[in-house]
Every structure is written in C-alpha cells, then in structure tokens.
Amino acid sequence: MKTVAVAISGFGNVGRQIARMLLARRSRYRNLYGVDVRLVAVCNSRAGLRKGAGIEEVDFASLVPGSTGPAFLVEAKPDVLIEAGPSDFETGSPGLAYLRTLLAMGCDGVVVSKGALVHSGPPLRRLAAATGARLRISGATAAALPTIDVLETGLLGCRVLGLEGVLNATTNYLLNAMMERGIGFPEALREAQAGGFAESEPSRDIEGWDTACKLLILANFGLDLDLGMKDVSVSGIGGVTLDDIGRWREEGTVPRLVGRIEFREDGPKAEVALRTYPLDDPFAHIAGKAKALRIHTDCMGEILTMGGGPEPTATASAALKDFELLLATPR
To answer: Where does L-homoserine bind (predicted)?
Structure first.
C-alpha cells in the first residue's frame, strides 16, 4: 500500500485540529484511496516533532524545542504540506518560507493561512506549476463555505461577471447584534470578545483587512487575476453609529461588510465596504457568524453559497477536503 507522508506547519488550535481529524480518518483514506496516510512532522514557531513511522495524538505533548523551520520539515520528506500557521499579509511570514521551500521540492501544498497567498500568491502558483506540485487553498477562503471550489470547477464554461461576499464571521456577528438588539458598536464588540466571538485585538476583522485578504485570494486563484492589496479599496465597520442602526432599521435594510469584485471596461475593481441590503435579498439573512458568496455569471445566472460551522473544526474540515481531493486525483 502506498504511503502518503504529511507535515503540518503551524500547530496551534487549527493545526492540532487538522492533525486530530487526519489521524481519525486514516481508515477512510485506506478504504477509499488505498493509501496509508502518516503524519510525519509537525511544528510551530518554537518546537516540533518528526517521526517517520507516524505521529499519534499522544505525541502532541512531546514537541521538541528548537525543532522547527522549513529545513526541519524537509528532513521528514513529506508528500503533502498543510500550512496552518499565523497569517501576516504584509510579509507572508511565517508560512511563505515553508511553502516556497516545500513547493520547490515538488511537495503538494494545502494552505490554511492567508498571509503567504496574499503576499505572494501568483509567484507561489508559478512555483508549483514549475515543479509539478499542487496547491489547494479552501481553508484560506472563508473556511467551510464553498468559495474557491465553485469558481474553479462549479462554473466551468461560464464567464464570471462579478462577485460579492460576506467573508468575515466576526463583523457579520457584530452587525447582526447591533441590528437585532439596537446596541452600539462598542457594546457589541465587548460582548463578542467576552463570548469568544471576536479577537482581543480585532482590528484586522473590523477594519476590513481579513475580508480584503480573502477577496484577493479568490481574485488571484479563482479568477486568474494578479491583484495586490494596493489594488483593493478597504473600509470597515468601526464607524457605525446608533443613528446608522436606527436609520437602517427604519428603512428595512440590513448592513453587511462585503468584499466585491466588478469587471469594468477599465479593468477589475476590488473593494471592501459596508453595504446595505433590502429584506428580500438573501444577503439580509446571513445569520450569526455565517458567511456567504454570490457570483454573477453570463450563462448560469446568480450562484449563491451561504453557511458556516464552528471553529476550528470548520477550517480543519476545509483543509482536509483539499487533502482528500489530492488523494482522489493522484499524480
């Protein structure tokens, strides 16, 4: 039976959940694809573990300090790298170094963190193509919500005329809380942080940068564009007031933080901004921390996906969907 060796860079909440679910699904992989999947290396920024015979969940508590970095994973000779580290779109670190090194070896990549894809998405695509490596990115584009899959395969033969998405769960939760209960932004944010629904430092969510990152990945990987953050107009929801809430409730409209791409005669326009929708629009009914993507096409009309799941399971599931697609289409 063929062995498929897997390494995980980034071993926080998401990376550990991916590892647990990967190990739990090994019998599925054997039965469906005839492969013996082994987790041969994991690491975070400070420590890691490498084990050719395969890491088990009991080993997660035995990471070795200093065992980390791209060279450490190279020694494990993985067939697939799952990159699940922290995300910094300004530098691409730390995931960019892992991806560059492992893709250059021909190792397939499953990417969860957004930073490297935003910073160096097109070069990483070219590197993978040059070495024959495959790059899958579902976990980086709104987690469990089908997004990149729809663009890559669901709309083959169509021309995408534009798309818009509610791609950040935190801002959707905050706007829903404000609208449903008539509370202000500061109160909604305090409650969300107390309940674990918002980060203690939420600026990248509320200022629109997380949405912009996901929008850029969809643009460059799903629509074959070559955009950078400088090409995206970005604004957030921090300026929403109680007067705004009252006016929208009176008008019968619902606010959403939306990432949008439009194709114009002078080229594509990418924007993240607050938009309002009437009650008969599906975007007015994106509940809680759910997300949504709407794609306008020339011959399939309007395609809408909506939903979400609890974290970190949702993102881990998206990553393992990508992994399973690699198993289903071996090189």
So the answer is: 199
